């Protein structure tokens, strides 16, 4: 994986920068924009037209956030006067590639892409740029291509750090003094987010493994060993089943599990439950309804709140900037090297959620807030 991370939330201190976004013609104009304060260069976009088609290529429905994004993009883009084409690549990479090509055919002037496989979209996105469209990587970075103008996401490395910290905090709260035995789960290797999630978490956990506070019972500690193909719950559960019968068949206790998201956390909890073991401290991400209920009940320890409304709103605001011949706002120009360029990014701030602060964090969320009452 070609990403570089600084391990600090550089964005927090950075003032908003903007990416020059507009030339006045569509269709491969030579007029290039500059990259403003980014210090890099970007082709930027073009002044997009009123009512323009906007393509939004989403991955599979591997978590609730993607399903919500579909609705929010359709409503928000329509309300802003654009014509949305929002599609899921449910059957995989080839379908997503074909969808992007079809969006270009339909003269989409911006392509927003939540990649299934961040390294497999180069030629489609290059074609999009050649047609004069702007390309925004949404939530997941696209890799090894120049054909991406900006990345809009929650800070992935920070998500991992928060998960690592929550695991340590939960172990101290619920499992006594330690040392503790844990297992690690990571996301899908084709998703560019899975590595920073894992690296962020390991930046917190590795020192505790090194000093003996934590032991990984199965001995599986590398990303390759702990990754979950396709973010599929069944894959995580099968791996955990094997670990439970191999490592935890006797009296050995499993105190904690690093899980990168809620779907996989629930799968791992099922496996542990079926093995007849106590509920371990387990992390998650996405604030999925079932997991939020579980946190309120004191079962799953933590999740991460990445408010999809905020992410979609930031993306639509960027498209509106392009429509006004303006520039895509960015606040980080260092962290997201996609292999061939550092992609200027707008990073939003993820929040950790536990039983203790759930009511406060979800206070303004009409779906999740009520789950924390009474
Ligand atoms: C997203 C996570 C999500 C995962 C699986 C990642 O790219 O950032 O929020 O849990 O995909 O859908």
Structural write-up:
By secondary structure, the chain is of the alpha/beta class. The chain folds into two domains: 181 residues, Rossmann fold (3-Layer(aba) Sandwich); 171 residues, Response regulator (Rossmann fold, 3-Layer(aba) Sandwich), CATH 3.40.50. Helix content is 37%, strand content 15%. The chain contains twelve helices and 14 strands. The strands form four sheets. Strands 3-2-4-5-6-13 form a six-stranded parallel β-sheet, with helices on both faces. Strands 8-7-9-10 form a four-stranded parallel β-sheet, sandwiched between helices. A two-stranded antiparallel ribbon has the order 1-12. α4 links the parallel β4 and β5. It is elongated, with a radius of gyration of 21 Å. The N and C termini lie far apart (45 Å). The N terminus is likely disordered. Bound molecules: beta-D-glucopyranose (BGC).
The gist of it:
By secondary structure, this protein is an alpha/beta fold. The chain contains twelve helices and 14 strands. The chain is elongated, with a radius of gyration of 21 Å.
Just name the CATH architecture of the largest domain.
Answer: 3-Layer(aba) Sandwich
Form type: elongated
Q: Overall pLDDT, averaged?
A: 89
Domain unit count: 2
N- to C-terminal distance: 45 Å
Strands, total number: 14
Helix tally equals 12
Q: What fraction of the residues are assigned to beta strands by DSSP?
A: 15-25%
Strand order of the largest sheet: 3-2-4-5-6-13
Sheet of most strands: 6 strands, parallel
**Assembly state:** single chain
The CATH class designation of the largest domain is Alpha Beta
Radius of gyration: 21 Å
Low-confidence stretches: 1-16, 20-45
